[in-house]
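Why predict the complex rather than its parts? Because the way molecules touch one another can change local conformation, and only a joint prediction can capture that. The input here totals 400 residues.
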Amino acid sequence: MPDLFTDQLSAYLDSELDELRRRRLETHLGECAECRAVLGDLRALIAAAPNYRGREPLRDLWPAIEAGLEELGILPITPAGPPAGPPTRFSWPQLIAASLLMAAIGGGAAWLALRGPSDRPAGATALAPDGPTIPRSIAYAEAQYDVAVADLTSIVEEGRSRLDTATVRVIDESLRKIDLALAEARAAIQRDSTNVYLNRQVAANMRRKLTLLRKAADAIART
Amino acid sequence: MTSALPDLDQADVALAVTGDHAAFERLYRRHVPRVMSLARWLLDGGDADDAVQEVFIRVWQKLHTFAGQSSFGTWLHRVAVNLMLRRRKNLGLSRQRHAADPAELETISAPTERPDLRVAIERAVEQLPRGAREVFVLHDMEGYKHEEVAAMLEVDPGTSRSQLHRARMLLRQLLAT
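Output of the joint prediction:
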């Protein structure tokens, strides 16, 4: 098994040999079983390499990652607008539907736990008449979200006197910031309805509003 | 490099891009083993945990730029490789490591068991000298071309080619039963 040929086996497998060297090597391979064996081993190695499974971390890294995501916090829309990105992949109805469904489910659970079945009809809150045309399922999800927010807001308003003033101040200030971010993002979406960044901000802030109201309602229920 | 579950990835990316942590956690759990191995191989056992955390936080921030032209797994690995190579540079892992070191080769021992070729390769890769390992991981495992590998590692393409051949031959030796 001359080294001259062995050293060319990788380049041969990667189709990087010129015609003359490739022919010489193939002639040699026809005569040398040892080189053929090496070639076979390398071929199997190259075929298997991309399909590696990887190893689990020794400890669960998700809690630290999730804490990092939380630290990113609310990202209000700046007047300069979002950074430019490549063409969008998800439509605005897809994004809002995915987010609102999750938000409505989460909010609804807390709402039912606190208040029991509501006599308010689902979908009582109408969508803005000049908003984009969106499918019925999305309209339903958004209506569910609005109902959950309205009921949780009502609970918080009725029970706010049972909370200490510092807590009430934090809640009010957080809600004000979230509502401001939501209003700015929604206004921007009116100008660019397919922008993924803007839609993500709307969905994230809607979710945060629901979470905040749910926590406030929980705090009131514990008093 | 392809994801084993591209449809699930696609659905979870659509949710995660709206801010859904649970969907992003599912993506994390499906992909973390390969990203962790990548960190171990490219950072030479440095703080792989920290690097992996940074990768997923960075991916979360950049998720809205994922255009779906490749699989999520391929995109994730591109982000991970770039970040790890930057870390590698900051750690001062220099190009001189790409020079052949015969003493380093002598420390390599054969693996004690061989459950299957893929697992055996993963274990054997850890025993390669750093220069050969980095080129093998980037070229054969992650699918970069020699010119790309050379630019990433700040070596010339000829060095990348020779290190790759060296890595393959060492792995063959390590995997021999």
